[in-house]
Structure formats: structure tokens, C-alpha cells
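Renewal narrative, Specific Aim 1. Our central claim is that a sequence can be written position by position from structural information alone. The example that follows is taken directly from our test logs and has not been curated for this report. It begins with the C-alpha cells describing the chain, in the order in which they were read.
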């Protein structure tokens, strides 16, 4: 018992102020001006401006993101072993932010003087630097702040909700105004250059503010403070924990569902015959979610994570059924998107809290501090999920016979757009429902937290849960 208590000094942290929660959420606002900007517009920029085929772009992104998704676990270990004056996660959030902004600008400025092969190499290298190095370091560290800032369950759900409110505001702004801004700045490469410069600043400055101002109060301490936790033991305790695996799958599915983000601009342009409807679709898909996230902490707190999330996912399934039967009717399509957004609110609000809880479960069972490492699954799931998502969008367009800039598209291309907008996301929602149903830890998590507070972790933990 004594060694277990020495292994970690775990005390209840003070309640977070609203100012600190908002400062934390500001970071996800900035991060999306890199990641969502890339996820939503990389394909159409590369096909219609840089002149690179959709299938090639999809393949490059898939290779980069899937490989990078598995390396995120190593970044979690780096965060856990960081010892800096600023903290464990904060320095990574602060110092990688400006580099991330610069690289995002470079990705949307493919040199026209390069030949086709040169362009492909350029895109792959810049994208790999973003995905595998600087966004990985930034996002794993940022996500782990939820655990480092507090061990209070309500504050964790609140941080998750506020984080995604800021994220969705950024996503809504990006999806609504990017095409308009590109045209306003002159269109073509010139337009993308100005927009990329603006978004680079909107990426770097908020993230730097988060990294500088938030505080780390809930840091697990090893028995030997000079000893570093090795990578392989961390990986072992994570991949042998069923809740870690289920939560990783949940994150993967959450981002796989977002093929609708990558295809929305094509859908508005070629299925609805009005590219200006991109903004309307984005508002319908995101604004209800932003509003709903203000109420998510109380709703989830009252009914519990599992019941709240799966009730919402049932609502989402109903919404997709509406969209199936009204895929070319703007009014009913918008209604379906609004209902779907409402249904997804509980899961988005609870995602970060689920990961923090899983970190407690892994630490309680193994005795290995994994606050940073467990949050690497959020980045890994996002990278792999969005990598596959981008590839699916590119491949489906290529298979369907999409022709960049054509006034009319083939029936195959239209079917591909509908599949990525409606049918594939519906399948992922059904799979998320099944995954959440298997996450049955809520009944014993209070006892787990009590054990941790008393130092009963690893071999000293309660055995009969």
C-alpha cells in the first residue's frame, strides 16, 4: 500500500474557472484552422487548382495518416516523460503552434513551376510534416490537458463540451466562408494563398494562448521521479485494456463518419446544383451541435454517458433515413442535417470525458501513469479515421468518374457523392451505437476513482470490481 501511495500523489483538484475552460477551448478553435481546413478542402484544392488527381491525393493522405496514427502512441509517451518548467503538455501545445500554421500555409501553396511528380512529392512531404510531426505533437499534448488540468468528472465533461463548441464554431466558419473568401481574394491560387495565410494566423495564435495560460494541476508522479516510463510497457498496458481498444474504435468511427465534410462542397455544387448551398448545409450540420453542447454536460450528468450517447445516436439514425428519402430536396435535407446534429451532441460532449475515464481505468489496473499516452488515441483515431475518410472521398470520386470543373458529372460521380454524404456516415453511426453499448464501465468508475485517490493502483487495487 505504501509503494502504491508513493507511486502517485492523487488529490482532488480545485474546480476550474470558466475563464480557464474558455482558454482551453480556444486551442481547438485554432487547431481546426489547420486540420479541418485541410480535411475539408485539400481534395478540391489539389484537383481544381494544383492539378493533382483525386485518387492520388486520397492515397497520399491515407498513407500519411494511417502510418502517423500508430506513431501517435509514441508522442503520448513523450508527453508523459516531459519535464519542463511550463509543464508536461503545455510546452508542446505552445511551441508547435506557429510551425503548424506555417506548414498549413505551405500546403495550400503548391508551386506551379513544379511538374506533376514534383507537386506530388511536395504535397506528400508537407502533409507528412503536418500530420506525422507537428500536428501529432500539438494535438496529443492539447488533448491530454483535459486530464492534466483536472480530475473532476463534471469539469472534464465541461472541458470536452467547451472544446467542441470552439471546434464546431471554427468548422462552421471554415466550411461556410472558405470558398467565398477564396473568390473574394481573386480566386485560383491567389485566393487560396490569401486564405491560407489568414488561417495560418487563426491556427497559431489561439493555440499559443492555450499553451501559455492554462494550468496543469493533476499530474501523476512516479515513484522515482527521474525514471522515464518506457514506450513498450505503456503500449502493452494500453492495448491489453478492452476499454482503451473500444474507445479507440469509437474515435475512429467518429472521424470516419465525417466523409460528409469532405464531400459537402461537391454535393452542393453537383447534386444540388448550387455551390452557395455549401454554407447552408454547413450551418444545418453544425449550428445545432454548437448550441446543444452548452447543455450536454447537464444532460450527460443526469442520464449518464452510455444512455445519453446511445439515445442521441438513435436520433441520428432517424435523421439519416430522412436524408436518404430527400437527398436532392434542399428543405428536407437541411431538416435531416439539423436532427442529425442534435443526435450527435451527447457523444461529442462526452468523448473527451470517456478518454479521461479510460486513462483512470488503465492507471488503476496497471499502476502505470498514462495521462498523455491514453490521449494519444484521440489523435490516432482522428488521423487514421480522417485518413481513410479523405481516401474514400478521393477514391469514390475517381471511381465514379468525377471530372474536375465539369458542368455536369456522371451518374457514378453523383452516386459517390450521395454515398459519402449519407449512406457511409449512417453505417458508422450504427457501429458507434454498438461500440458505446460495450463501454459498460460507468457502474464501477466511482470506486476506481476512490481507489486512485487513496493510492490503490496496480497490485494494490480493489480486485472485486
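The sequence written for that structure reads:
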Amino acid at each position: 500500500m505504501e509503494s502504491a501511495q508513493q507511486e502517485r500523489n492523487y488529490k482532488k483538484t480545485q474546480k476550474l474557472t470558466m475563464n480557464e475552460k474558455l482558454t482551453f477551448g480556444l486551442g481547438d478553435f485554432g487547431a481546426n484552422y489547420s486540420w479541418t481546413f485541410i480535411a475539408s478542402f485539400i481534395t478540391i484544392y489539389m484537383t481544381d487548382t494544383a492539378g493533382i488527381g483525386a485518387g492520388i491525393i486520397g492515397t497520399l493522405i491515407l498513407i500519411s495518416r494511417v502510418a502517423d496514427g500508430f506513431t501517435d502512441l509514441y508522442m503520448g509517451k513523450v508527453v508523459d516523460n516531459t519535464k519542463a518548467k511550463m509543464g508536461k503538455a503545455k510546452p508542446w501545445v505552445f511551441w508547435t503552434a506557429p510551425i503548424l500554421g506555417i506548414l498549413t500555409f505551405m500546403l495550400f501553396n503548391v508551386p506551379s513551376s513544379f511538374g506533376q511528380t514534383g507537386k506530388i512529392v511536395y504535397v506528400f512531404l508537407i502533409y507528412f510534416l503536418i500530420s506525422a510531426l507537428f500536428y501529432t505533437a500539438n494535438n496529443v499534448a492539447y488533448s491530454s490537458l483535459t486530464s492534466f488540468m483536472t480530475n473532476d468528472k463534471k469539469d472534464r465533461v465541461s472541458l470536452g463540451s467547451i472544446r467542441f463548441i470552439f471546434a464546431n464554431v471554427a468548422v462552421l466558419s471554415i466550411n461556410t466562408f472558405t470558398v467565398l473568401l477564396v473568390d473574394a481574394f481573386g480566386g485560383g491560387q491567389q485566393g487560396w494563398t490569401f486564405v491560407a495565410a489568414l488561417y495560418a494566423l487563426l491556427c497559431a495564435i489561439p493555440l499559443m494562448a492555450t499553451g501559455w495560460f492554462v494550468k496543469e494541476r493533476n499530474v501523476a508522479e512516479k515513484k522515482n521521479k527521474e525514471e522515464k516510463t518506457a514506450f513498450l510497457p505503456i503500449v502493452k498496458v494500453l492495448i491489453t485494456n478492452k476499454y482503451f481498444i473500444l474507445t479507440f474504435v469509437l474515435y475512429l468511427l467518429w472521424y470516419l463518419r465525417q466523409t460528409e465534410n469532405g464531400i459537402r462542397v461537391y454535393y452542393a455544387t453537383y447534386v444540388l446544383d448550387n455551390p452557395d448551398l455549401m454554407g447552408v448545409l454547413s450551418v444545418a450540420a453544425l449550428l445545432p451541435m454548437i448550441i446543444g453542447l452548452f447543455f450536454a454536460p447537464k444532460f450527460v450528468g443526469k442520464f449518464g454517458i452510455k444512455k445519453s450517447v446511445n439515445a442521441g445516436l438513435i436520433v441520428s439514425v432517424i435523421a439519416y433515413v430522412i436524408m436518404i428519402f430527400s437527398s436532392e430536396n434542399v428543405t428536407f435535407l437541411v431538416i435531416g442535417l439539423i436532427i442529425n446534429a442534435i443526435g450527435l451532441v451527447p457523444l461529442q460532449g462526452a468523448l473527451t470525458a470517456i478518454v479521461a475515464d479510460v486513462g483512470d481505468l488503465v492507471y488503476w489496473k496497471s499502476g502505470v501513469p498514462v495521462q498523455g499516452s491514453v490521449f494519444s488515441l484521440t489523435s490516432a483515431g482522428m488521423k487514421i479515421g480522417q485518413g481513410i475518410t479523405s481516401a474514400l472521398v478521393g477514391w469514390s470520386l475517381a471511381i465514379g468518374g468525377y471530372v474536375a470543373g465539369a458542368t455536369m458529372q456522371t451518374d457514378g460521380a453523383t452516386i459517390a457523392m450521395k454515398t459519402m454524404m449519407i449512406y457511409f456516415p449512417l453505417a458508422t453511426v450504427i457501429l458507434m451505437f454498438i461500440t458505446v453499448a460495450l463501454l459498460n464501465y460507468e457502474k464501477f468508475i466511482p470506486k476506481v476513482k476512490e481507489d486512485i485517490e487513496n493510492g490503490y493502483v496496480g497490485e494494490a487495487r480493489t480486485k472485486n470490481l
